[in-house]
Every structure is written in C-alpha cells, then in structure tokens.
Amino acid sequence: MFAGKEKTSSNLAWHRPQSAISLQEEELMQNSARAAPNATDPIEKLRLLCLSRGATGILALGRLFRRMDNNGNKKVSKEEFVQGLMETGLEMSTKEAEETFGRFDTDKSGNISLDELIKQIRPPMSESRRDIVKKVFKKFDKTGDGVITIDDIRSVYSVNSHPLYMSGEETAEKVMNRFLANFEVDGTADGRVTLEEFMNFYSGISVSIDNDCYFDLMMRQAYKM
C-alpha cells in the first residue's frame, strides 16, 4: 500500500520496549527520503524509497509483486516490474525502473526471481537478528509449512511494553489491531503471514536499531520468548 495511502510514524504500529518508537521511525523515513535522490545504485535507491515509506515499505512491495504473479512461477517480467513500481507511487522514472530491472536480470532471461528481488532490496540484517526473527516465526509455525496466521500472532504478541499502551493513550486491543494491520499492508486481509513477509517487516524495523542486543530484547519481550 503506497500511493495515496502512506503510513506515517503515528499509525505504524510496531513494538519496542522504550518510547523512542515514533522518533526513530520518523528518523528512518526522513533519512531514507533525503538519501534516495542522491543514490547512484538503482537497487539502493529502490531500497531507500521503500524505507522512506516506513518499516512496512519493503513488505508492501513484496506483496504487490506476489499479487502480480498470476501463474505462480515466482518470477516477474520487465513489463510487470515497471508496472508494479509505477503502481506503488514511488518516485522512480520508467527509465530508472528498467535500469533497476536490468541489475536484477543477471542471466538476461527477461524475468527475475521474486525471492531474489526481495532478498536484495531488503536491508542487510546480522545473522543474530535473522536467527531471532526465525525463532519467533517457528514458535508459531507448528506445521512447519512456512505460514502462520494473524490469530497465531495475536495469541502470543504482548502489548504490555508498548509506549502508547503504557501511557494509557490506547487500549490493548487498539495497539494489537494496529500492529497486526502491518501484515496486511496491500489491503488483502488473508490472515496469513509467510516467513518472508515476517522477515521483510522486521528488516525494516532493524534498520533503525543500532544494537543487536536491543533488537533481540525487543523480539523476546514482544513474543514472550
């Protein structure tokens, strides 16, 4: 969900133990927006444009391209790639979109893998951060099929340390619903979250957290690990 439906730091609901949440989210968006026009690498520019929309920017882009994969081959053509970027409303010209596609299309087949596309756009995460995100996901994924449900998250995710709940500004239900809405960013409320989507979401949050131990603490407190 991009063009005309931008999420600001005030309505992005993600959990952090301290009340610096909104300031760090806003800083991430502003820094990415300032850096994007000066980025010379097309992949880096696309990453920054996504992050300028907040922690869910890359998650939303991934869902958009998945939705466009009508035949289920997990590939996207140049035409689909350019069209998808235009639909997002990201400030990237057709020429820039085509150049970006060329960077991904290393074998010159005219198609790129959706999995590789998202992996390259996603901000790098340390191995320890990836491990804790995977551990949280696996805690819910009882069947091992790589898919969990919104209800699974709701049953364990804790809002007790969320600053808006702690201050009394919002009820536990409102904080919870706003957090869960992050996983339905393209408007498709299918109630399902894949490991890739879970990782995409937390890679956006990870960018604004400098300390690995703090990230680990955030995840453990949020999911009662």
UniProtKB/TrEMBL annotation:
<dbReference type="InterPro" id="IPR011992">
    <property type="entry name" value="EF-hand-dom_pair"/>
</dbReference>
<dbReference type="InterPro" id="IPR002048">
    <property type="entry name" value="EF_hand_dom"/>
</dbReference>
<keyword id="KW-0106">Calcium</keyword>
<keyword id="KW-0677">Repeat</keyword>
<protein>
    <recommendedName>
        <fullName>EF-hand domain-containing protein</fullName>
    </recommendedName>
</protein>
<dbReference type="GO" id="GO:0005509">
    <property type="term" value="F:calcium ion binding"/>
</dbReference>
<dbReference type="Pfam" id="PF13499">
    <property type="entry name" value="EF-hand_7"/>
</dbReference>
<dbReference type="InterPro" id="IPR018247">
    <property type="entry name" value="EF_Hand_1_Ca_BS"/>
</dbReference>
<dbReference type="InterPro" id="IPR051581">
    <property type="entry name" value="Ca-bind"/>
</dbReference>
<keyword id="KW-0479">Metal-binding</keyword>
<feature type="domain" description="EF-hand">
    <location>
        <begin position="128"/>
        <end position="163"/>
    </location>
</feature>
<feature type="domain" description="EF-hand">
    <location>
        <begin position="92"/>
        <end position="127"/>
    </location>
</feature>
<feature type="domain" description="EF-hand">
    <location>
        <begin position="56"/>
        <end position="91"/>
    </location>
</feature>
